[in-house]
């Protein structure tokens, strides 16, 4: 994975350069807005960079790099490499924007072990002794930060595709990016919709509705779209795009199912968020839909009563975790993960993609789905 490691370094360098380039503009507006840049720099440092990696290997998969051998990332690299790094970096900035907005909607306290954006700006307000509500200021400032990051992701994408040798490839990549942005936004809407409207839907629909949220809020945006964007940068054929989608969607579903398990059972030292955070937020995930089918009526009533209570105690979280395990839902989710990983591997096996990329995508399949609690 030496190439992937080098790509992560290049993406971090490009993000740092981009933020440095925007610093003079913000400084000319007012010194106080430097707080937006400082928090952005902190949020955009580190992370798993899965979207950047899938973008790069989507590009390599269609033969746009050095050919069948594992490609190198160096000064002698292919002419479009800078465009790919810029596009991969734009995806990471877009992801940061989505995280900021997601934490506002979920009322989350932390992100990657640090205060979530709205909590950070709330503390800035409180430390300054300003007028008004710290919580209101924090939410408003974080909302604007998310919007700023969305705009910046567009700017960096435009810079990337403008440097491509093929204008048609740039247009295709932009179209894929636009589709991703729409899908993840409406997927977020579906997520908050299900948290509030689940009681009005038949029990038989809860599983399919939870799966729909996974597909549009996460699976496409985390894996399928970055692959398609990268492949489009490389002038992918329809057959290559279809193969990458057939691989990316089930892998994205498996990735989010694993993330859902981490949201309930994850170690805060690993996830950067409190244990049982999804339980306090009331996420109507696949694991919850499955648990409801495996529990007696009285246990379902307790689950429904407690799920979504932001003041759940640690003991109540542990009780719900035990309930979910005893329902058999955890084992069922693990089987769903295995099923989707198998589908992804089968799609990759004979795909019309470069050998090096297929090998690296196979390794990434393990990386994104075998994270431990």
What attributes does this structure have?
373 residues; mainly alpha; Farnesyl Diphosphate Synthase; two-stranded antiparallel ribbon; 16 helices; globular; metal ion binding; prenyltransferase activity
Word description of this protein:
- The chain is mainly α.
- It has one domain: Farnesyl Diphosphate Synthase, CATH 1.10.600.
- It contains 16 helices and 2 strands.
- A two-stranded antiparallel ribbon has the order 1-2.
- Strand 1 (110-111) and strand 2 form a beta hairpin.
- Residues 66-70 have low confidence and may be disordered.
The helix count comes to 16
CA-to-CA gap between the ends?
24 Å
Please identify, by name, the CATH architecture.
Orthogonal Bundle
Count of strand segments: 2
C-alpha-based Rg, rounded: 21 Å
Task: Please give the largest β-sheet.
Answer: 2 strands, antiparallel
State the low-pLDDT regions, or none.
66-70
CATH H-level homologous superfamily name: Farnesyl Diphosphate Synthase
Please bin the fraction of helical residues: over 70%
Let me know the average pLDDT: 92
What is the name of the CATH class?
Answer: Mainly Alpha
> Which term fits the overall shape?
globular
Write the layout of secondary structure elements.
Elements: H1 2-29, H2 34-43, H3 50-61, H4 81-106, E1 110-111, E2 114-115, H5 117-128, H6 134-162, H7 167-197, H8 206-233, H9 238-265, H10 268-271, H11 277-281, H12 286-294, H13 297-306, H14 314-326, H15 329-349, H16 355-369
Antiparallel strand pairs: 1-2
């Amino acid at each position: 994975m030496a190439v992937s490691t080098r790509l992560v370094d290049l993406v971090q360098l490009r993000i740092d350069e981009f933020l440095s380039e925007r610093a003079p503009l913000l400084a000319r507006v007012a010194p106080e807005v430097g707080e937006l840049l400082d928090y952005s720099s902190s949020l955009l440092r580190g992370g798993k960079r899965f979207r950047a990696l899938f973008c790069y290997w989507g590009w390599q998969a269609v033969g746009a790099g050095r050919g069948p051998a594992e490609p190198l990332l160096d000064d002698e690299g292919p002419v479009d490499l800078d465009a790919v790094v810029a596009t991969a970096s734009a995806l990471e900035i877009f992801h940061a924007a989505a995280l900021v907005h997601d934490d506002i909607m979920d009322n989350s306290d932390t992100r990657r072990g640090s205060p979530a954006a709205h909590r950070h700006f709330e503390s800035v307000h409180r430390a300054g002794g300003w007028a008004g509500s710290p919580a209101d200021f924090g939410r408003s400032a974080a909302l604007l930060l998310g919007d700023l990051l969305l705009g910046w992701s567009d700017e960096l994408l435009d810079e990337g595709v403008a440097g491509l040798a093929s204008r048609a490839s740039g247009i295709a990549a932009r179209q894929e990016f636009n589709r991703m942005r729409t899908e993840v936004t409406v997927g977020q809407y579906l997520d908050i919709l299900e948290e509030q409207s689940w009681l009005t839907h038949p029990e038989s629909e809860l599983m399919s509705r939870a799966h729909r949220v996974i597909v549009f809020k996460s699976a496409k945006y985390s894996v399928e779209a970055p692959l398609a964007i990268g492949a489009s940068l490389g002038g992918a054929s329809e057959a290559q795009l279809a193969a990458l989608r057939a691989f990316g969607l089930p892998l994205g579903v498996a990735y989010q199912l694993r993330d859902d398990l981490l949201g309930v059972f994850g170690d805060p030292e690993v996830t950067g968020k409190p244990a049982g955070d999804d339980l306090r937020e009331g996420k109507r995930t696949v694991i919850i839909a499955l648990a409801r089918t495996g529990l007696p009526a009285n246990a379902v009533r307790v689950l429904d009563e407690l799920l979504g209570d932001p003041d759940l105690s640690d003991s109540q979280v542990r009780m719900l975790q035990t309930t979910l395990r005893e329902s058999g839902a955890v084992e069922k989710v693990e089987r769903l993960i295995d099923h989707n990983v198998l589908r992804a591997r089968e799609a990759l096996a004979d795909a019309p993609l470069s050998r090096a990329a297929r090998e690296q995508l196979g390794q990434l399949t393990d990386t994104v789905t075998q994270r431990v609690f």
